[in-house]
Amino acid sequence: MSEFIPAARPLIGDEEREAVDRVLRSGMIAQGPEVATFEQEFGAHFAEGRPTVAVNSGTSGQHLGLLAAGVGAGDEVIVPSFTFAATGNSVALTGATPVFADIDPDTFTLDPESVRAAITPRTKGIMPVHLYGHPFLVDQIEAIAREHGLAIFEDAAQAHGASWKGRPVGTIGDFAMFSLYPTKNMTSGEGGMVTCATEELARGVRLLRNQGMETQYANEVIGFNARMTDVHAAIGRVQLTKVDAWTEQRQANAAALNTGLAGLEGVKTPVVVDGAVHVYHQYTIRVDADERDRLRDALKDEHQVGSGVYYPIPNHRLPSLARFAPDLHLPETERAATEVLSLPVHPSLSEGDLERIIAGVTAVLRAGA
Hints:
- 40% of the residues lie in helices and 14% in strands.
- By secondary structure, it is an alpha/beta fold.
- The radius of gyration is 21 Å and the shape is globular.
């Protein structure tokens, strides 16, 4: 039997292990020099040198970024429903209200006209997600934000290295959050980064992540313990030296899948709009709703190919968030939730793996035709 091809595979090598050992030997495991250096390197690499703050998770980064930007009770922030629940959660955790908007069916990112329709006098900002590694429709969302005096908060959890017309994600909004979870395009084991448009906003995030203090025992605000450890930062610093090559491999793998699946009836391969650089955190196809789960199961059972459904339940239908959206109908979001399937695209795939993925999808769908 062929070896199983997982939907995602973290890449941890000897260099990461050596970096962890170096930190452990130093005795400076938390609040040492690694975090500060990682922040500088990450900001220079991905965000044109913007002030950057490391935290213990992407969700913490979103939450603290919103708080530092002044979002709180009485405010509304427009978010997509078709994403991981952390986006809406982070808004709700500030005391503000997440307002769900629909998606563009090609990019799976916020639909500008749905955003426009969701604006009220209480709207403080828009939090678009660069979903699957494709940037949101920046020009149209920025125009709406300018027209209504709204902030933009980027959810760049899945989009390390993506860009829009030459502008790197992470440099577009008031702040941007990148996740460093193990399955992301690069990892620190666990963690997040917040790139900020101003040093004032970055200082606010730093205060909030460390019990409200920059100087020990001089607490300025009520804060959290959301610090990144030096152990995690050491892993992230090594990964930062590898991520560009991994991104190129993801893009090459996506191109191979596009070619192999071209013309296959019943499949829509990922769209990349003009001006966008897609970094393929996920390679997400669309298939008919009545075929999607059959395809997922058959790929696993008959072809030893993993896949994932991201995301099967729209946020506005989740028990945790539905109270913010009573009777809301988002047709493109709800359709996507029944049709999407993410195939392996990670950089450790071999040419043979890619051929098996293509052959498996082709065989399953043709058998059901």
